[in-house]
Specification:
Protein name: AIM24 family protein
InterPro entries: AIM24, AIM24_sf, Trp_RNA-bd_attenuator-like_dom
Distance between the termini: 35 Å
Strand content: 35-45%
Pfam families: AIM24
Number of helices: 4
Radius of gyration: 18 Å
Structural class: mainly beta
Helix content: under 10%
């Protein structure tokens, strides 16, 4: 039996964050290198790791993001190996390396606490799609883990001459320097989006990338972990 399971054993640590399979991230925890992670995302850990729900930094920076139904982030600190997952979703690990990324709040699994970050509602979308979307701006030197409902595609917006349109329920992340606006489409409503017969998209233009997941199921965006 042990030989049959050997292929699933942990691999040697190679980086601060790395994938273990498609749907899990392994994080090398060290004292002084705290981590913010989605509440309830811990599936296993080795060593000594402590967790603090709704830490002061989150209350100060992301107060509007926290609802009465639950807290979106916890702080993890200590020494050891930490494994995170989100209901079997694909996990994408990124080393920002001094660059910046804007992430849909529901697709944010974990990030280094030392990164510069802030939370804001995506402008220009609420009037089209009702509740709008929360995005998290991340930047600096550090690691980020995102979730995707299936293997994502990264679209290069190119020179900015043409706009790139994305269903809000399929949006994962984008370059913060891109221009973003909402668009309502009637002619495409039978092919794009779901629900009322009207299709809503986010239009991106400029230099940068957009990360899109192969899912339009908005139920994931409304789920709050306990």
């Amino acid at each position: 039996m042990n030989q049959q399971l050997a292929g699933f054993a942990p691999t040697p640590v190679a980086a601060r964050m790395e994938n273990h399979g498609r749907s899990m991230v392994k994080i090398a925890m060290q004292s002084g290198q705290d981590l913010f992670a989605r509440t309830g995302s811990m599936v296993a850990y080795e060593g000594f790791v402590q967790y603090e729900p709704n830490p002061p930094a989150v209350r100060q920076i992301a107060g509007q993001w926290i609802t009465g139904e639950g807290t979106p982030l916890m702080k993890a600190s200590g020494d050891g190996l930490l494994y995170l997952a989100d209901y079997g979703a694909d996990v994408v690990v990124i080393n920002l390396g001094g660059e910046a990324l804007s992430v849909n709040g529901t697709n944010l699994l974990a990030f280094d606490a030392g990164l510069q970050w802030g939370v804001e509602r995506v402008k220009g979308l609420a009037k089209f799609a009702g509740q709008g979307l929360w995005n998290v701006q991340l930047g600096g030197q550090g690691w980020v883990a995102l979730t995707s409902r299936g293997a994502p595609i990264v679209v290069d917006c190119g020179s900015g001459e043409d706009e790139t349109y994305v269903d809000p329920d399929a949006l994962v992340a984008w370059s913060p320097n891109l221009k973003v606006k909402g668009k309502r489409s009637f002619k495409a409503s039978s092919m794009i989006g779901r629900g009322s017969g009207e299709a809503y998209q986010m239009a991106f233009s400029g230099q940068g990338i957009v990360v899109v997941q192969p899912s339009e199921d908005s139920t994931d965006r409304l789920r709050i972990r306990s």
